[in-house]
């Protein structure tokens, strides 16, 4: 069990007294860490994860894999530097019980893994996990030959009756509510008897960089993957059956969690350096270089990392965020402080994230005096002078960091349950006050 750290105390969001000038070491990527854990668990030899993210979502993933019989040793790396986890893929077992918390990656990526276990695996989680869509994964696994007991809503809780192996083959799903359906099937695909061919039939598909991340990481452990981008059919991904290698992988910093720190440079007209920003990455947070530059900053990517500088002005933006939906709360917070209106589009699926993020951002920014309206697929934000007040987080880590961004510029903002940042960034309050030189 990795408890949901809820803290009803109010956290006074620090107000910036001047331009920030800081270097912030951002911990590892949630999305990379959890994919690396799954791929290492499915491999045919041991592997290492170096600089993994240690947060609620990744500890839930590690706990779930351990419950299914995988050994994960937490320690320092082979060369003695930094934290490293050694994964020993010792066979997938049931019966087991998995707590997914409210982690999309755990609730979507692990049912296909459980189908390969040799007994039943029961999945349960936070109340919100019952509301997040899982139908794409459930329907697909049934098409591929798995037996699943659920209550027919296409969501948790459920039990996957692992049979030790899965036929696999072609499958058609609508992944318009979450790219994680596609990633989930591809990640386990090499271990299905016939591999897998995933055809997305919906009108839209969010978070494409996260699907590219899945494909890149599969290829890095030796899988053969055909994609629309490598000359295949549009909306079709194919994974050939085969053994996966155990690798020694250094996890990149979480660029989406770098967002509030970059925003601090933008909002205060200061400068923030993020060491180890990768020169090439599939992480959606890399798009911040372009988005926050359009909103008034400038950046330089050096061998050391990313140096981001604010100009003192913040401009509104009209942007389609469908590929990078998880950046929306932080962009909305900056947009609320800008000198012109913003329109954020292409993110209807955010209503099904940790909370209904479109409703939550609208309500909380407006309660501080803002002028935000929801559109069919996003937000329209007209900046107004904001005032202090309580910023509720709805158990959503990115709501907490969005509130902290506003607090830099607006005195008297108090974040309810800042501890919810533990989902992906447990050190957030310390990193934030450290950045401000407190
Ligand atoms: O695969 C992943 O690691 C993720 C995919 C995205 O999910 P959706 O496609 O459901 O938005 C993203 O929002 C989430 O934070 C992480
Ligand atoms: C949507 C998110 O998370 P999850 O992996 O739970 O879907 C997120 O981190 O913004």
Quickly describe the structure.
By secondary structure, the protein is an alpha/beta fold. The protein has 12 helices and 23 strands. β18, α9 and β19 (342-345) form a beta-alpha-beta unit.
Based on CA atoms alone, the radius of gyration comes out at: 21 Å
Small molecules in complex:
shikimate-3-phosphate, phosphoenolpyruvate
Uncertain segments are: none
Overall, the morphology is globular
Helix content: 25-40%
Number of strands: 23
* Count of alpha/pi helices: 12
Main β-sheet description: 4 strands, mixed
Terminal residue distance = 34 Å
Strand order of the largest sheet: 2-15-17-16
What's the average pLDDT? 96
Structural class, judged by helices and strands? alpha/beta
**What fraction strand?**
15-25%
Q: What does this 3D model show about the protein?
A:
- The protein is an alpha/beta fold.
- Helix content is 28%, strand content 22%.
- It is built from twelve helices and 23 strands.
- The chain has helices at residues 30-42, 56-67, 104-114, 135-143, 180-188, 208-220, 259-268, 288-294, 328-335, 357-367, 397-409, 428-435; strands at residues 10-12, 21-23, 47-50, 71-76, 83-88, 96-99, 120-124, 147-150, 158-161, 169-173, 196-200, 225-226, 236-239, 248-250, 271-275, 298-301, 305-309, 318-320, 342-345, 371-375, 378-382, 389-391, 413-416.
- It has a four-stranded mixed β-sheet, with helices on one face.
- α1 runs parallel beside α3 (104-114), α4 runs parallel beside α5 (180-188) and α7 (259-268) runs parallel beside α11.
- It starts with 9 loop residues before the first strand and ends with a helix.
- The model has no long low-confidence stretch (mean pLDDT 96).
- Residues 103-105, 326, 353-354, 398, 424 line the site of phosphoenolpyruvate.
């Amino acid at each position: 069990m990795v408890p949901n750290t809820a803290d009803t105390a109010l956290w006074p969001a620090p107000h910036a007294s001047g331009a920030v000038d800081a270097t912030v070491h951002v911990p590892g990527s949630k999305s990379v860490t959890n994919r690396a854990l799954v791929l290492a668990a499915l491999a045919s030899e041991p592997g290492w994860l170096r600089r993994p993210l240690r947060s609620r979502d990744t500890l839930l993933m590690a706990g779930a894999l351990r419950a299914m019989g995988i050994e994960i040793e937490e320690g320092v790396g082979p060369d003695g530097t930094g934290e490293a986890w050694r994964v020993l893929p010792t066979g997938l077992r049931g019966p087991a019980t998995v707590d997914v918390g409210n982690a999309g990656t755990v609730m979507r990526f692990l049912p296909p893994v459980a189908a390969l276990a040799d007994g039943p695996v029961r999945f349960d989680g936070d109340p919100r996990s019952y509301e997040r869509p899982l139908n794409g994964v459930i329907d697909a696994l049934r098409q591929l030959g798995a037996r699943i007991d659920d209550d027919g809503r296409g969501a948790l809780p459920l039990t996957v009756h692992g049979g030790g192996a899965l036929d696999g083959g072609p499958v058609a799903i609508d992944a318009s509510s979450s790219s994680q359906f596609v990633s989930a099937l591809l990640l386990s695909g090499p271990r299905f008897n016939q591999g897998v061919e995933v055809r997305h039939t919906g009108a839209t598909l969010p978070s494409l960089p996260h699907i590219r991340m899945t494909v890149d990481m599969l290829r890095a452990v030796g899988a053969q993957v055909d994609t629309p981008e490598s000359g295949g059919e549009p909306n079709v991904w194919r994974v050939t059956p085969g053994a996966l290698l155990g690798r020694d992988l250094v996890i990149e910093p979480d660029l989406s969690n770098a967002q509030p720190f970059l925003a601090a440079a933008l909002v205060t007209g200061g400068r923030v350096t993020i060491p180890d920003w990768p020169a090439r990455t599939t992480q959606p947070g890399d798009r911040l270089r372009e988005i926050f530059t359009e909103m008034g900053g400038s950046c330089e990517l050096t061998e050391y990392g990313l140096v981001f500088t604010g100009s003192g002005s913040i401009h509104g933006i009209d942007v389609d965020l469908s590929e990078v939906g998880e950046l929306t709360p932080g962009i909305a917070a900056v947009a609320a402080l800008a000198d012109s209106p913003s329109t954020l589009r292409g993110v209807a699926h955010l209503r099904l994230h940790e909370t209904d993020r479109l409703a939550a951002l609208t309500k909380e920014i407006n309660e501080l005096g803002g002028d935000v309206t929801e559109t069919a697929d996003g937000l329209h934000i007209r900046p107004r002078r904001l005032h202090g007040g309580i910023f509720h987080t709805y158990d959503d880590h990115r709501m907490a960091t969005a509130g902290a961004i506003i607090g830099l510029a607006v005195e008297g903002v108090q974040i309810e349950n800042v501890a919810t940042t533990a989902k992906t960034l447990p050190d957030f309050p310390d990193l934030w006050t450290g950045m401000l030189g407190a």
